[in-house]
TrEMBL record, chain A:
<comment type="subunit">
    <text>Part of the multisubunit transport protein particle (TRAPP) complex.</text>
</comment>
<keyword id="KW-0333">Golgi apparatus</keyword>
<keyword id="KW-0256">Endoplasmic reticulum</keyword>
<keyword id="KW-0931">ER-Golgi transport</keyword>
<dbReference type="GO" id="GO:0005783">
    <property type="term" value="C:endoplasmic reticulum"/>
</dbReference>
<dbReference type="InterPro" id="IPR011012">
    <property type="entry name" value="Longin-like_dom_sf"/>
</dbReference>
<protein>
    <recommendedName>
        <fullName>Trafficking protein particle complex subunit</fullName>
    </recommendedName>
</protein>
From TrEMBL, chain B:
<dbReference type="Pfam" id="PF04051">
    <property type="entry name" value="TRAPP"/>
</dbReference>
<dbReference type="GO" id="GO:1990070">
    <property type="term" value="C:TRAPPI protein complex"/>
</dbReference>
<dbReference type="GO" id="GO:1990072">
    <property type="term" value="C:TRAPPIII protein complex"/>
</dbReference>
<keyword id="KW-0333">Golgi apparatus</keyword>
<dbReference type="InterPro" id="IPR007194">
    <property type="entry name" value="TRAPP_component"/>
</dbReference>
<keyword id="KW-0813">Transport</keyword>
<dbReference type="GO" id="GO:0006888">
    <property type="term" value="P:endoplasmic reticulum to Golgi vesicle-mediated transport"/>
</dbReference>
UniProtKB/TrEMBL annotation, chain C:
<keyword id="KW-0813">Transport</keyword>
<dbReference type="GO" id="GO:0030008">
    <property type="term" value="C:TRAPP complex"/>
</dbReference>
<comment type="similarity">
    <text>Belongs to the TRAPP small subunits family. BET5 subfamily.</text>
</comment>
<keyword id="KW-0333">Golgi apparatus</keyword>
<comment type="subunit">
    <text>Part of the multisubunit transport protein particle (TRAPP) complex.</text>
</comment>
<keyword id="KW-0256">Endoplasmic reticulum</keyword>
<dbReference type="Pfam" id="PF04099">
    <property type="entry name" value="Sybindin"/>
</dbReference>
Length: 137, 200, 126
């Protein structure tokens, strides 16, 4: 089950967030913004405090009620997928969201990079992907 | 030109696009993302340089016209061995299938005659490659980015001797949210000539 | 309560960062969780390590870093708390004197020795 999707730009700003289920607490936009900022900072530190050199930032966070999958692109954009603890293949799903982002956000002439994403075509394609994943999972 | 092409290929590299044989160029495909980004820049250029939505569509259509008029030259050389259509329906089906296939890799989805007026024809594409990734913001909802394709069609018609006024319209349906229709309104002279062909 | 090193910074500095990370994550998780008051943060993983977290009802935080492929170490951390920390630190009659003389009560040989032995006995320790 996919609960929510967040996209954080390279400066730590939240540019997209969507809830898909009622599995998480309802947060206000402001709380999400703060959360994105916190996550951005924590993500950077987690790669610094690695006992082994050359670590990436946090990739998966596990809790007893959900998991957060984080995929950071080479350009510094982070895709956060909040899922059920038992969700298989969420990593692959973050890659698919990246693909949709590349297609419907970056190739859209009306989108200003780094700004919040308000694009219907992206929305509907994300919804479609989530529906498919939640139906099979 | 052909000499240098053979030389390049004997080195095991594909010759540059300008050195390839014109006739054999049919299977060359351009990456869709590469085109999408280019089109992005064309659109933002058009946005910056124009005063309103109509002006912008005009700019896009002009871009398309420049592509179309050159493209016609190439495709007539390639597919028609220099032969030119004289009948209206032939030209329309030439655009609907050959032009569309060469440009977008598939024929257009519909070719219809206007119901209200004798001189109007429509070509529709359910999911045009050109606007595949474009979601037009709400405040510009009248803008049809298909104007670019309209420009190409206009140039092909003009170049073939069938002058027409061409416009592009978004005709979205639930099944095909990106469906675009190109409306062609032909010049009087075209219809008159067409009539003269008909057996009396 | 940190059994690492080798990050190229002082242990003290590293401890601060680790504390900051687990503290932030704990808050973030409890905010997102639909169940109020659940402290559900279990672990996180990067490409090279996995950080396991366990918090006692008294607010004591235990952190263990492992290879990224290790299974959950929750039980192990619970054992470290219940059978090593409580036994050799909390129950140490000299704890107060140690603290007064500026030595952290964790730094006693009995605790360290037992911790060493326990961690070496865990599956996956090489």
């Amino acid at each position: 089950m996919l609960h929510a999707l967040l996209i954080i730009n390279k400066a730590g700003g939240l540019i997209y967030n969507r809830d898909f289920t009622d599995g998480l607490a309802k947060l206000t936009t402001n709380e999400y913004l703060v959360m994105a900022g916190t996550f951005h900072g924590v993500h950077a530190i987690t790669s610094r405090i690695s006992p082994v050199p050359g670590s990436s930032g946090m990739e998966v966070l596990e809790t007893d009620t959900f998991k957060i999958f984080c995929f950071q692109t080479l350009t510094g954009v982070k895709f956060l997928l909040i899922t059920d603890p038992s969700q298989p293949n969420a990593d692959a799903t973050t890659r698919k969201v990246y693909e949709l982002y590349a297609d419907y956000v970056m190739k859209n002439p009306f989108y200003n990079p780094e700004m919040p994403i308000r694009i219907e075509l992206f929305d509907s394609n994300v919804q479609k992907l989530v529906r498919q994943t939640n139906a099979t999972g | 030109m052909s000499q240098s092409a053979t030389r390049a290929s004997s080195h095991g590299r594909r010759p540059p696009i300008l050195e390839r044989n014109l006739v054999k160029g049919r299977t060359n495909e351009v990456s869709l993302p590469a085109f999408a980004f280019l089109f992005c820049e064309m659109l933002s250029y058009a946005t910056k340089k124009s005063s309103g939505i109509q002006d912008m569509e005009k700019k896009l259509s002009d871009f398309g016209y420049r592509v179309g008029i050159r493209f016609l030259e190439l495709i007539v050389f390639r597919d028609r061995i220099g032969r030119r259509d004289t009948r209206l329906l032939n030209v329309l089906s030439f655009i609907h299938s050959t032009v569309w296939k060469t440009l977008f890799g598939k024929p257009a989805d519909a070719l219809e005659k206007g119901t209200d007026n004798e001189d109007e024809y429509m070509i529709s594409d359910n999911e045009p490659n050109v606007t595949k990734f474009i979601a037009v913001p709400k405040d510009m909802s009248q803008l049809s980015c298909g104007a670019f394709i309209g420009g190409i069609v206009e140039a092909v018609l003009d170049g073939s001797g069938f002058p027409a006024k061409v416009s592009a319209h978004a005709t979205a349906s639930d099944q095909f949210p990106l469906r675009t229709t190109i409306l062609m309104k032909f010049d009087k002279s075209v219809l008159l000539r067409e009539k003269s062909f008909e057996p009396r | 309560m940190q059994a690492t090193g080798a990050t190229g910074m002082s242990l003290e500095e590293e401890a601060k960062l680790v504390y900051g990370v687990v503290f932030s994550l704990r808050n973030l998780v409890s905010k997102l969780s639909a169940k109020p008051g659940s402290d559900g943060f279990i672990s996180y993983r990067t490409s090279t390590y996995k950080l396991h977290y366990f918090e006692t009802p008294t607010g004591l935080k235990f952190v263990l870093n492992t290879d990224p492929h290790m299974e959950s170490m929750r039980e192990a951390l619970r054992t470290i708390y219940g059978q090593i920390y409580v036994e050799y630190v909390v129950k140490n009659p000299l704890m107060r004197q140690l603290t007064q003389s500026g030595v952290h009560p964790v730094q006693n040989d009995l605790f360290r020795g037992n911790l060493q032995r326990f961690v070496r006995s865990l599956p996956g320790f090489e």
